[in-house]
Amino acid sequence: MNSTKIKDALAAADHAAQQAADQTSQLTEDAQDVLARAENGFAELRDGAAATFANAKATLADGGDRLAHALRGAADQTQEASARVFDAAASGVSAATDRLRGNGLTELVDTTRDLARRNPIAFAAGAAVVGFALARLLQGSAAKGPRR
Fold it and tell me: What is the H or E stretch that residue 15 is in?
């Protein structure tokens, strides 16, 4: 092989290497752009989920306040023994709504799970009382009919 052919082969190899480097650089830029867009999309999704959770938490806490108020009202209108039950349930609902406002989703799930493990009977009884109270509250709301 003569020196001209070697120089031409080296020049061609150098040119091919330069093209490969340029393509690699472009692919790196494209990958960084895609990664930046994905990070922005994730941040928007996270922020949207956080806002949705905050709204749901506030709505649930407000409903809990209304339930506690209804339970206290029922306690005022009933006989003495059942009044204590309604008052205790109202206090429990008030405490739960206060915790709901002050904690995030993870803390709320952990607290509920721990309560259910430590006192399964009390947890089931509390859930039943809250269910009955909600049913009574909803029946009262449905009986009033739509407002115009």
Answer: helix 3-77
Which residues are CB-contacts of 95 (< 8 A; sequence separation ≥ 6)? none
- Of 69, 135, 87, give the one whose Cα is nearest residue 127: 135
Of the chain, the percentage scoring pLDDT greater than 90 comes to 0
pLDDT (tens digit per residue) in 9-49 = 888 888 888 888 888 888 888 888 888 888 888 888 888 88
pLDDT mean across residues, the chain: 80
In the chain, the amino acid numbered 46 is R
Spell out the alpha helix ranges (H) of 78-102: 80-102
Q: Which residues contact 134 (CB under 8 A, 6 or more apart)?
A: 67
Task: Tell me 103's DSSP state.
Answer: S
pTM greater than 0.70 (yes/no): no
Cα separation, 107 vs 113, in Å, equals 10
C-alpha 72/C-alpha 89 separation (Å) is: 9
Phi, psi of 79 (to 5 degrees): -70, 165
Helices 120-144 and 3-77 pack at an angle, to 10 degrees, of 80
